[in-house]
Amino acid sequence: MNEIEINLTGIAHLGEAIGKHDGKIVFVPYGIPGETVKARIIKDEGDYLRAEIIEVIEPSFFRENPPCILFGLCGGCSFQHVTYSYQTKLKEIVVMEQLKRIGGFENPEEFTQITIKADNPYNYRNRADFSINRQKLLGFKMRGTHKFIYVNYCHIMHEKINELFAILQGKTPKRKTHNVTIRYGVNTGKYLVQPEMDVIEIETGQKFYIEKLLGKEFLISAPSFFQVNTYQAKNLIMTVLNYIDTEDKTIIDAYAGVGTFTVFLAEKAERVIAIEESHSSYKDAQINIKNYDNITYLCKKTEEALSEFNFHVDAIVLDPPRVGCMKEVLQGIAEKKIKKVIYVSCEPSTLARDLKFLKEKGYKIIEIQPVDMFPQTYHIENVALMKLM
Fold first, then answer.
1. What does each of the 389 residues of the chain score in pLDDT, given as a tens digit?
2. Domain residue ranges of the chain, discontinuous segments joined by +
3. For residues 41 and 37, what is the distance between their CA atoms, to the nearest angstrom?
4. Which of the listed CATH numbers 3.40.50.150, 3.40.50.300, 1.10.8.60, 3.40.50.720 matches domain 87-119+230-388?
5. The domain at 3-63 falls in which architecture?
6. How far apart are CA 343 and CA 80, in angstroms?
7. 350 phi and psi, to 5 degrees?
């Protein structure tokens, strides 16, 4: 395909640098805005092009050497070539552009705060999901393919996970599987390996593990969701709690998981109604909330539970999956005139879409606080505060 010289002028939603060639937008992975690069066009998508860097002609001041030899092959990281302080700046730009383009918010810089950075931008992940090949080796899938890549160390996994998976290399699972999961309690030292493995050095096949956050203990079963960055999870919780006031007497915690926000909300409100459709997370939560008598935990879809409520609610905390909220959820919030919405999101595009819906129903954005839960990747968590005007 054609080789071109291109000036990179911006950053796209999925962490790719962008420039223009012959009037078309060009997406260039592993570039940095401000750089001039020689690139090879690898795909013409009609109204835009995809390219790969051959040579960095004029490097950015923010470019650095990635520590991982698999960077660019493994799809797990997208920003190891960018200094950490600039990674978070790029993520803020993406958040604001999504709010403008999808959400229709004209001046998002007025309410978007500076990102809460991670103290440790490496070795932070408390969960690893490995592929396992025919030789019983653990690794990842090559970026954009299903091709197996052997891994002997992952720079964003917690050191304990690296230690555990080194022991598991070449060992046989006790049931047929293509995946091995390791989860680690950073503040407890407890861990979980699924499935059970044919190994004597460590215990495997645990059904759950225990983690602590801000002094509270959480039981987390193998299928249950928990934030992958324990260090930043406390900042996420504190951000949500900072948006709760004394007049917030009754709070809904939607997509409540194992109760990560619920137990902290229960200490600030008179009544908390938690909603979670995952049976695994719901069962874990029953243990995690046992010391609180002001929590009602419902195992239902959020849209179903909201439609059944007929009592006054002061605030709702939303922490949906990447796809965002069902329209029925947002419609239910508006119909019940819940005064305050605290929306936790790991996907800026669906956050912008959902905030736009609420804006059209009379809600105003007060603040958006990015929290970098995923250093070295393009992902960014945001906490948005909206109020009914």
1. 689 999 999 999 899 999 999 889 999 999 999 999 999 999 888 889 999 999 999 999 999 999 999 999 988 999 999 999 999 999 999 999 999 999 999 999 999 999 999 999 999 999 999 999 988 899 998 877 889 999 999 999 999 999 999 999 999 999 999 999 999 999 999 999 999 999 999 999 999 999 999 999 999 999 999 999 999 999 999 999 999 999 999 999 999 999 999 999 999 999 999 999 999 999 999 999 999 999 999 999 999 999 888 889 999 999 999 999 999 999 999 999 999 999 999 999 999 999 999 999 999 999 999 999 999 999 999 999 999 99
2. 3-63, 87-119+230-388, 127-221
3. 12
4. 3.40.50.150
5. Beta Barrel (2.40)
6. 29
7. -75, -30
